[in-house]
Amino acid sequence: MTAQPRTILDRIGNTSLIALRRLRPAHGARILLKLENENPTGSMKDRMALAMIEAAEADGRLRPGGSVVEYTGGSTGVSLSLVCAVKGYPLDIVTSDAFAQEKLDHMRLLGASLHIVESDSGRMTERLTKDMIERARIIAEAKGSFWTDQMKNRDQIAAYHGMADEIWRQTEGRIDGFVQSVGTAASLRGISERLRHHHDAIRIVAVEPAESPVLSGGLSGAHKIDGIGAGYVVPLWQEIIADGIERVSTEEATVMAFRLAHEEGLFAGTSTGANVIAALRLAEELGPDATIVTVMCDTGMKYLKSFGARLAANA
């Protein structure tokens, strides 16, 4: 008999990998999408949230009866809310009105206490990121909570090593390129490190918002791609991680998210749209004999209100 999961946390990982059928260049590489929407909260962040909490439990930073605090644009907060709900830890989340209301509601439903930092007209900026970090630091100090501090926390990288091993097995080692957008940089760093352990010739491409292209030497700016583009060079970023950096605008990412739904039946968020645009560019460069993997970071169900407003405006 197949062993049954002990909790919902045992359902994290081992997600599917599928090929895009219509959204590919006529003479370009095959593009495979890692369906991280299959995780319990519909996001790849479930992997890193579990890794950060379990590492802290193992070394005593988080003890029974303890509490947790984090700053987040949403998906990390939802994932931490799930993990803390299952494990019984009170959770304080510092977030903002700049992020999808669906994510904020999901965190509350899972039992998290939210602290909202106001944004500049609903846009992600460097100042907003740093204001959220400072608020989380104050709360952690006042309550004696374990602060996961995702921008600096290296425990999450191991979770993405595991994701890379899944990709390697699923492609049977036939992978020529990997594309991923950069938030904390942990997923790109962890996956690329492990893929290069298997085969060091894989081409790695990072993706950032065109409105805030700080990794590629541009100026910090405001954008609306949830979960990526902190507005400054994040601590986990290393220039050696990527062979190239692609800039994708909020508008381009949103249009591609809609195309994925219409043409592939894949309902994803804007960070996934950005990933696919960058993967298509790399596909043309590498040619028809190559295979590229990128990530469906989360489900579009997290963005129903903003996507619905766009549909209504275009009706």
Describe the structure.
This protein is α/β, with parallel strands linked by helices and 315 residues long. The protein has 9 helices and 10 strands. The strands form 2 sheets. Strands 1-2-10-7-8-9 form a 6-stranded mixed sheet, sandwiched between helices. The chain has a 4-stranded parallel sheet with strand order 5-4-3-6, with helices on both faces. The radius of gyration is 19 Å and the shape is globular. The protein starts with 16 loop residues before the first strand and ends with a helix. 52% of the residues are buried. The mean pLDDT is 95.
Key structural traits:
315 residues; six-stranded mixed β-sheet; four-stranded parallel β-sheet; alpha/beta; 9 helices; 10 strands
Question: Can you lay out the helices and strands and say which pair or pack?
Answer:
Blueprint: E1 17-19, E2 30-35, H1 45-59, E3 68-71, H2 75-87, E4 91-96, H3 101-109, E5 113-117, H4 126-143, E6 146-147, H5 157-171, E7 177-181, H6 186-198, E8 203-209, E9 244-248, H7 250-264, H8 270-286, E10 291-296, H9 304-314
Parallel strand pairs: 2-10, 3-4, 3-6, 4-5, 7-8, 7-10, 8-9
Antiparallel strand pairs: 1-2
Strand content: 15-25%
Secondary-structure-derived class: alpha/beta
For the secondary structure, the number of strands is: 10
Overall, the morphology is globular
* Major β-sheet strand ordering: 1-2-10-7-8-9
- Look at the structure and give the mean pLDDT: 95
Whole-number radius of gyration?
A: 19 Å
Provide the low-confidence segments as ranges. Answer: none
List SSEs in N-to-C order.
Answer: EEHEHEHEHEHEHEEHHEH
Number of helices: 9
Largest sheet: 6 strands, mixed
Helix content: 40-55%
Span of the ends, CA to CA: 52 Å
